[in-house]
Amino acid sequence: YITRGDMDNIAHRFTTDLFSFWKDLFKIEGAGSRVYTRFKNRLDYVTDPLDLKVRDLRLIGFPTVKAVTELERWENRLDLEIGYEGNLIRGHVAYRNEYYKFVDKLFEQADHMEHTYVLRVGANIPELEDKSVYVEGRWRELRYEEDTLNDADAWEVVVGVEGTVISRKLRVQVEAGYSEWDSSEDGETADDSDYDGLVAYGQMVFRPWEDRNLQFQLDGGRALSWSAIANYRVEDRGALSVLYEVLPKLLDADLTLSVEKTNASDGPDRILYSAGAGLTYHLFKQLDVTARYLYRVQSSKNEVELTDGTGVVAESDGDFHQNVFSIGLSLEF
């Protein structure tokens, strides 16, 4: 990572996903319907430069942290889903357990476990071919190991529709609903604010030619998530991506443009613009090699300071320009 300033870092991620080959633990099929159970567990050990907005962790990074140059953490995510798929009705119940453990003591306040419970019911629309509607409810419990930040309970309900529009070349998914974030106010932080308001998500996928692997994809929406320095964060994001198969089954190219606006309940307000391009070479059936370049520029206001009882030990500075070069290997077996 080549950044403004003198923090040039290399990030790494070690990931295990040993249960992915168990798509269905068991399934029962018959008369056009089926019942299934799915389980997977993913363990990551991650090091990221602090001048990045860490997307997977959903944290706001600190580009000028004194004495700390990297954000090391363990992440574990467990998913369990039981579902039913019929000719007209489909639905599932799901549970997700997420655990985050930080290596540096400066961020121990953010060590936590999150429980998410999901109920989704949908129906195909017989009069409209290849279209369906659904209702989904989500309940989240956020529990920190330390008393610095507030525990929270959050719920949201969304209504969505998905399917092809105009022709089979264009597929759309749109959902919108209401979310509420309720903090416990038991933590030492002065931030005890709550949130209630709109959440939404939309995706549009367009494939103009059936005989060419060219795809345009537009994503956007508003989401509510936790923060390492405040009660919650509201994220508004939009992205346009283009995927093209340069050489059939051998070489793929991609182009991405995105903008993200992040507002913490008590902390920085940031706008991040990104533009990038990449190549993926299918070396073997099981092995892919990727190379990617990404340019990012971020503007920030309402910065924060971190203290340890003896004074300010870190302060955020969210304005930066960044050039990111990355290479990767993906092995599946």
General form: globular
Cα-atom radius of gyration: 22 Å
How many β-strands, per DSSP? 19
Specify the helix fraction band: under 10%
Structural class: mainly beta
Average the pLDDT over all residues and give the rounded result.
79
Question: What amount of the residues lies in strands?
Answer: over 45%
Order of helices and strands: EEEEEEEEEEEEEEEEEEE
Major sheet description? 17 strands, antiparallel
Give start-end ranges of low-pLDDT stretches: 1-9, 51-69
* Continuous helix count: 0
Distance between the termini: 30 Å
Task: Explain the layout of strands and helices.
Blueprint (H helix, E strand, L loop, with lengths): L1 E2 L8 E5 L9 E5 L2 E17 L20 E16 L3 E14 L9 E13 L6 E14 L7 E14 L1 E17 L11 E12 L7 E12 L7 E15 L3 E14 L4 E14 L4 E15 L3 E3 L4 E4 L4 E12 L2
Antiparallel strand pairs: 1-19, 2-4, 3-4, 4-5, 5-6, 6-7, 7-8, 8-9, 9-10, 10-11, 11-12, 12-13, 13-14, 14-15, 15-16, 16-19, 17-18
Q: Can you describe what's shown?
A:
There is one protein chain. The chain is mostly beta strands and 333 residues long. 0% of the residues lie in helices and 65% in strands. It has no helices and 19 strands. The protein has a 17-stranded antiparallel β-sheet that branches. Strands 17-18 form a two-stranded antiparallel ribbon. Strand 3 (26-30) and strand 4 (33-49) form a beta hairpin. It is globular, with a radius of gyration of 22 Å. It starts with a strand and ends with a strand. Mean pLDDT is 79; it is low at 1-9 and 51-69.
Give a short overview.
This protein is mainly β and 333 residues long. The chain is 0% helix and 65% strand.
